[in-house]
From TrEMBL:
This is Glycoprotein endo-alpha-1,2-mannosidase. The keyword Membrane applies. The keyword Membrane applies. It is an enzyme of class 3 (hydrolase). GO terms for cellular component: Golgi membrane. Keywords: Golgi apparatus, Hydrolase, Membrane, Signal-anchor, Transmembrane, Transmembrane helix.
Length: 463
């Protein structure tokens, strides 16, 4: 009888355990079916939708590969077909735009971000451009002899201290442009300040990029961003050539819905042009273009605009005013490097601008390091301090209540000022810096945080 009772209890326990196990399996199956998208067919990458960043990167890589396959062939043909490829890609992806708008942070058109389209790789450009940046020698030969020479060798060795999540990309790759627009929109910036050289011209390490402007404008419009121009110090830049180039930009791109116009205090809507290294040209030349009585005056013409000069030294503020500029910006992300980039000088600069009817646009940045191309320039490195440097710069900018804040930069990788996503990477003897312990998008999130803070504080300024 005792053995019988033991066996009976054992059978009951076994049945209960088996029943519970079956119920557990059924519950798991039901949960998986609930999570599985209705549209998913057999063999779909189930679970990918639970990881939005991974899904985005996978879709990006698939699209990129398709575009790379289509982009093979003659280099000239690739360039001439670039706009049509981008337009077709956009048409295929326009349906979810409304949903996209709901998911992304609203753009802040008072946050302007510097953007560079000078990067190239063999798939789209037939060779690497800018990623293979040369090591720049020090101007003192005695110092220069103590540092390495040569140039970088992509894709493992690039001219940057950080490594992009998108790799050594081409600025002509439509999927890269779209990824950049989405990142900038995620950061709640509103205006892209596009580095620009006239047609046929480029910086000494790059190639002409004006043909890329229509594609940038199209993708910017998709993400409800605006585009203005950062006019670089091209050869023979003076009052006459500037007049013709401003006319060229407005005639060719001014009718695009993504072309930026700033509403002035008088209610006028005017294009805006940032003029890099403006101090190289003497005030008398600028005054020919930017004052009403100037011989090449652009004022009160269809090509009138807001022209923003670069302030480096304190004396430049008087030159800027005399030249007829409408405002000044500081560009450099190195606190203490120049008078203009030193946070403690912003209050006096803002006061000067207010008293002379000028705009003051401070430039904030996440840090600075350019030793990958200027190995002798350690003393100008500014550590990111896990985002604290960036937040300190924003805090200093908000204190002076500027109408616009500029951000240096989205993707100036050579100088380590980028907020674009970067990833840890080690290859051979090269160990790249990264954003750890934070994620690759930390600086996009910080920008979005300060964009919202700026909006709230600006409402109080205007009360």
């Amino acid at each position: 009888i005792l053995n019988y009772d033991i066996m009976a209890r054992f059978r009951r326990r076994t049945c209960i355990i088996l029943l519970l196990f079956i119920l557990f399996i059924c519950s798991i199956m039901m949960a998986l079916k609930t999570l599985r998208p209705d549209r998913a067919g057999f063999g779909d990458p189930f679970g990918l939708g639970l990881l939005p960043e991974l899904q985005q990167r996978t879709v990006l890589l698939d699209s990129k590969q398709n575009l790379l396959n289509r982009a093979q062939g003659d280099t000239v043909t690739r360039v001439s077909n670039l706009h049509s490829i981008a337009v077709n890609t956009m048409k295929a992806s326009m349906s979810p735009v409304k949903k996209l708008e709901e998911e992304l942070a609203s753009p802040n058109y008072n946050f302007h971000i510097f953007y560079y389209t000078w990067y190239g790789n063999p798939q789209f450009d037939g060779k690497y451009i800018h990623w293979n940046h040369p090591l720049l020698p020090h101007w003192d030969p005695k110092i220069a002899n103590n540092y390495p020479k040569g140039r970088h060798n992509p894709p493992e060795d690039i001219g940057a201290n950080f490594y992009p999540e998108l790799g050594s990309y081409s600025s002509k790759d439509p999927t890269v442009i779209e990824a950049h627009m989405k990142q900038m929109r995620t950061a709640s910036t509103g205006v892209i300040v596009l580095s620009w050289y006239p047609p046929g011209m480029a910086d000494e390490n790059g190639e002409p990029t004006d043909d890329l402007v229509p594609v940038v404008l199209d993708y910017a419009h998709k993400y409800n961003l605006k585009v203005t121009f950062h006019i670089e110090p091209y050869k023979d830049r003076d009052d006459r050539s500037m007049y013709h180039n401003v006319k060229y930009i407005i005639d060719k791109y001014g009718s695009h819905p993504a072309f930026y116009r700033h509403k002035t205090s008088t209610g006028r809507l005017l294009p805006m042009f940032y003029v890099y290294d403006s101090y190289v040209t003497i005030p008398e030349i600028w005054a020919n273009l930017l004052t009403v009585s100037g011989s090449q005056s652009i004022r009160n013409t269809p090509y009138d605009a807001l022209f923003i000069a670069l302030l480096v030294e304190e004396r430049h503020k008087h030159d800027i005013h005399r030249s007829g500029f409408d405002g000044m910006y500081t560009y450099f992300a190195t606190n203490g490097f120049s008078y203009g980039s030193s946070h403690h000088n912003w209050a006096s600069l803002k006061a000067f601008c207010d008293s002379n009817n000028l705009m003051f646009i401070p430039s904030v940045g996440p840090g600075y390091i350019d030793t990958s191309i200027r190995p002798w320039n350690n003393h100008n490195t500014r550590n990111r301090v896990n985002g604290k440097y960036y937040e300190t710069a924003f805090s200093a900018a908000l204190l002076v209540r500027p109408e616009i804040i500029s951000i240096t930069s989205f993707n100036e990788w050579h100088e380590g000022t980028q907020i674009e996503k970067a990833v840890p990477k080690r290859t051979g003897q090269v160990v790249y810096l990264d954003y750890k312990p934070h994620k690759p998008n930390v600086y996009l999130e910080l920008t979005q945080k300060w964009s919202e803070k700026y909006r709230k504080e600006q409402e109080q300024w205007l009360m």
